[in-house]
Amino acid sequence: MKLTEIQDLIKFVSKSGVNEVELETKEIKIVIKTGKQSSPVVYQAAPQAISTAPAQVIAAQPSAPAPEASAPSANVPAASNDAKYVTIKSPMIGTFYRSAGPDKPAFVNVGDDIEAGKAVCIIEAMKLFNEIESEVRGKIVKVLVNDATPVEYDQPLFLVDPS
Length: 163
Hints:
Blueprint: H1 3-16, E1 20-24, E2 28-33, E3 41-45, E4 57-60, H2 72-82, E5 86-89, E6 94-97, E7 113-114, E8 119-125, E9 128-133, E10 138-143, E11 149-151, E12 156-161
Antiparallel strand pairs: 1-2, 2-3, 3-4, 5-12, 6-8, 6-11, 7-10, 8-9, 10-12
């Protein structure tokens, strides 16, 4: 594997929001960990059956640390108020979009009433655009994710007031 391919892989992983990726071939094993720990990326040659030289270990910092979604200390007081709301969460990893296209209106906005089964956003995963439907009835209170940003599985997307 070439150094440029490894660098591209690091950039892709840091932008995707994945916490850990492990890639192993006959020649090399790569483990990339991102997230709050800011752990280094470790490259290690895979053990070979016949070898006279020891395995080579290279450690490098990721090119850019994964951005934090929000500051936890700023949301502590708001958490008690949000307890009465239902959270619509992401059912998959992908890129979150509020509308079907750049020139189209958002599926839902703060204050909109929604029904169960109504599309609330799109998540793009592997070039497939998946409409995410609400499983609850209520009013959109808060949009928790910015448009065109990566989301992880089970990440909160919207807060809904079911009353």
